[in-house]
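User: I want to check something. If I give you two sequences, will you return the structure for each one separately, not as a complex?

Assistant: Yes, each is folded on its own. Here is the first sequence with its structure:
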Amino acid sequence: MTSRIPVRTAVVLLILGLLSLPAPSHAAPPREWRSSAGPVTATVSLSRDGRATLTARHGRATVLQPSALGLHTTDADLSTGLRFTGRSDRRISERYTTTSGRRRQHTAVTQETTLRFSKRGYRLDLVLRVAADGVAYRYVARGPSWVTVLGEASEFAVPTSADAFLLPYDNGRNDYESIHTHATVAAADPIEYGYPLLFHIGDSWLLLTESDLDATYGGSRVRLGPVTRRFQLTLPDPNETSRGPLTTPWRTMAIGVSPP
């Protein structure tokens, strides 16, 4: 024989049950955008607190673990609290000629993705290019008529087991004429290094450098963190000021394998 629960009691129990449920989270869900070309795949992720990271894979090998993205400006910290506002894609096919080399006529085919973020009225575009032989990205900061960058959040988290061929910049002269050192990322000295940096990860190679520099933005270096073992991009001056929109050089990663 079943017992009946009074209607008033049932309603009270239902209300108490609803009140005991966890409150819904108001944080934005994480987002992820992926672009591939041949064996190379780049993934940009946005965490719940608005921090963007970049990951790169070559086939099955992760050559760049999740690495921070963003800019620090005098108007806003565009490395956290970012909100995704849009995306655009285009395919780029370029032809160019070199004066020397095994061949002089070249064709470069690239997939370009622009991810647009905003924070308190300030806009940061991340322009990402992926090709069969590498990944590159740059920032475009929009907002006031002038933009002052205090630093970049850009970092490069190469697997610590990777063999690294590094160019020490802290040589007493601050130039690019040192002899490259050879060590794993885990064992390398935590100092500043100049470009290019070369890494051997399994059967894959990654060469890190920058390109398309001009007088509006300083040439960068990287510093290996003593604890994080990540290469943090550093700028030569306390700030970089340019009329907006400010466009940074490309952070370029050539990716491939040894020739047969």
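And separately, the second sequence with its own structure:
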Amino acid sequence: MAYTFLKWKLPRGQSFPLKRSVLDDALERAGVMEGVEAVYYHLWKPPVPVLRVSFSGEDRRGWPHRGTSSITLYAVASAERKLVELLLVSQGLPVVVRWLETIAAAGNTIRGPNQDLVFNVSNERLEWRSSLDAV
């Protein structure tokens, strides 16, 4: 793994809904690990997304991480961890992989500006939105 990894310490009652090994395996199997600059396991106060994938646009002159992606997984209540994990593994990770593949193969129109893919859980369902949908 060549990416930077930062993991916040969690208070009691909070959990990260996805093991790093599961994320790494999905990225490695798809061959998209190379474009990932950093992975963060972050503690943030709700409401926040459960997962965010960001691409730092190539138009960002002077930015050392331009043209790379980062993945941020947010802590959830421990009681919700299993549900969120199931949703991310079964639905979220395939979307993340396709999104990263699309970014990697894209031209300047997509790779120039910053791009984001954001996942939320609402009513026990995984929902996502992508800035690519607007392109």
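Because they were folded independently, the notes below concern the second chain alone. The chain has a mean pLDDT of 90. The CA atoms of residues 82 and 129 lie 22 Å apart.
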